[in-house]
Write a structure and sequence with these properties.
By secondary structure, the chain is mainly alpha-helical. It contains 16 helices and 2 strands. The two termini are about 40 Å apart.
């Protein structure tokens, strides 16, 4: 009876977790079915690709925003920074600068400005909300000042290579959609398969515990804002290419759309949780894997697992681990390697 009750409880828990993880996707599927029934053209290939091309730029911004939010921060400047990098790309094309150099400079400008905001946040200890809100206004003002408030459109248009970025097709699929999906896959691999990705989750889960483990929290946090700025630069190139002009008033409100996309996608605004819920991953971590981990890795596990006592090293009474806070539990793990 106990075994059956345990199985039923496990099934209920797993079902609840699945519903929480895929609730937004389920709602999207239901909405698509309703629209498809009311309008047959809604599910046509042409319309699907048009919708994907429309959201590709927002999706690129959301990728960068995901890194920032995972660390417990926020970036409100992405819309204005995208507009600023977009007019830079347009002005370089108007001066007949070759396309590869235009892309490199535009993306580099976005990355540097993102790193600048990250540096102010981590070094000056200014809240991310304040810094990025100031960036939102500063970048928009710089965009209007740079263009005198008028769009930038080369007399002979952009080069064919530059225009292809926002308007081209590979087969029936728009190039911005392919680029967005490729960037999404790359971000997934970084967050799931690299140490940097694990460190990003660790900083968002418990920055102080991560710092005590010897990891460069300030550097990791600054890097995430650099990634967000990089995505803004990429988005600026794509949007300018698609509009065929550098509009200083474009991308207004994109920051809220990007943040909403990140949150609806499953990333917590409090940081440390996103995608495939890492809190659940740590909760079901095999005890032997934890015991084989290095002390710094154990600290990350303990920090991101709250006060759960499932990771007791061999030789330490489980009751001791369950009562100990994360940092003390980690010291116990180091004492019994």
């Amino acid at each position: 009876m106990t075994t059956k009750a345990t199985r039923r409880a496990r099934v209920r828990r797993n079902s609840r977790m699945m519903i929480e993880r895929f609730a937004a996707l389920l709602v999207l599927v239901i909405v698509c079915i309703i629209f498809g029934l009311t309008s047959p053209s809604f599910l046509s290939t042409t319309n699907i690709f048009d919708v994907l091309r429309q959201v590709a730029i927002t999706g690129v911004l959301a990728i960068g925003e995901t890194f920032v939010i995972l660390t417990g921060g926020i970036d409100l400047s992405v819309g204005s920074l995208l507009a600023f990098t977009g007019v830079i790309a347009a002005s370089m094309q108007a001066d007949n600068v070759n396309t590869p150099f235009t892309i490199v400079v535009t993306v580099l400008v976005g990355t540097v400005l993102g790193l600048l905001m990250g540096g102010i946040i981590t070094r000056a200890r200014v809240p991310a909300f304040v810094v990025t809100l100031g960036g939102l206004e500063a970048f928009r003002g710089a965009t209007l000042l740079y263009t005198n408030g008028t769009p930038i459109s080369p007399p002979n248009g952009f080069s064919n290579a530059f225009t292809f970025i926002g308007q081209g097709f590979i087969g029936p699929v728009p190039f911005p959609v392919i680029f967005f999906l490729s960037l999404t896959l790359l971000a997934y691999l970084i967050l799931r398969r690299t140490l940097f990705g694990r460190y990003v989750y660790a900083v968002g889960g418990n920055a102080e515990a991560t710092r005590l483990s010897g990891l460069p929290v300030n550097l990791i946090t600054t890097a995430t804002y650099g990634i967000s700025g990089l995505c803004c630069g990429i988005g600026g190139v794509v949007l300018t290419s698609r509009l065929n002009t550098g509009d200083p008033t474009t991308a207004t409100g994109f920051e809220l759309t990007a943040i909403a996309a990140v949150v609806i996608g499953g990333t917590s605004l409090f940081g440390g949780v996103g995608g495939r819920h890492w809190d659940a991953h740590w909760r079901h971590l095999d005890r032997r894997d934890y015991e084989r981990a290095a002390p710094a890795q154990r600290l990350i596990v303990s920090a991101t697992s709250g006060r759960r006592g499932h990771y007791c090293p061999r030789g330490v009474p489980r009751s001791t681990c369950q009562k100990a806070p994360p940092l003390i539990r980690t010291r116990l793990a180091e004492a019994w390697p």
